[in-house]
Amino acid sequence: MQKNNNTIKAINKNVRSSPRKLSLVCNFIKGKKADLALRDLEFSRKRIAKDVSKTVKSAISNAENNNQYDIDDLFVKEAYVGKSLVMKRFRPRAKGRASPIKKPFSRITIVLEEKKTKKENK
Fold first, then answer.
1. Local structure of 24: helix, strand or coil
2. Other residues' Cβ atoms within 10 Å of the Cβ of residue 37
3. Quick one: angle between helices 34-42 and 19-29, nearest 10?
4. Strand, helix or coil at 78?
5. Count of CB atoms within 10 A of residue 52's CB?
6. What domains does the chain contain, in order, with CATH numbers?
7. Arithmetic mean of pLDDT, 14-18
8. Within 1-122, where are the H helices?
9. What is the mean pLDDT of residues 87-102?
10. How far apart are CA 121 and CA 107, in angstroms?
11. HSE on the CB side for 90, CA within 13 Å?
């Protein structure tokens, strides 16, 4: 079994947003070049796009520093979100009751891959 060496991963744990909201932003950048994904995240109207942008920048710097990849050849191969912990709070209600409030956290995983471009010799 061969391991694919041209993939780079960055994980951002305990992001204070629900996975459902984050997956919309992650699906938006999936398959795009890394610099285009950063530009699109910068102009996104979603609040959580800043945290996704941080994770993409981290993956790019991992590729540049650890593997000496060219930034121009990188693209977002996978961007997915998983559940993390859930803070449970309670809100007082009428007649001595309490209703629960769930504050979810998420985990963002960004996988970049280097796409080799063929250069023709003339």
1. helix
2. 24
3. 130
4. strand
5. 26
6. 7-114 (3.90.470.10)
7. 93
8. 19-29, 34-42, 49-67
9. 96
10. 45
11. 7
Residue reference for tokens 């590729």: 63
- Residue carrying structure tokens 């909201």: 21
First to last CA, the chain: 38
Confidence of residue 2 (pLDDT cuts 50, 70, 90): very low
- Which residue is listed with tokens 């994904």? 37
Going from the C-alpha of 48 to that of each of 18, 42, 44, 90, the distances in angstroms are 10, 11, 9, 25
78 and 90 Cβ atoms separated by less than 8 Å: no
Q: Which of 113, 86, 84 is nearest to 102 (CA)?
A: 86
DSSP-assigned letter for residue 33: B
Answer whether residue 56 shows pLDDT above 90. Answer: yes
Partners of residue 106 on adjacent β-strands: 15, 83
**pTM (predicted TM-score):** 0.83
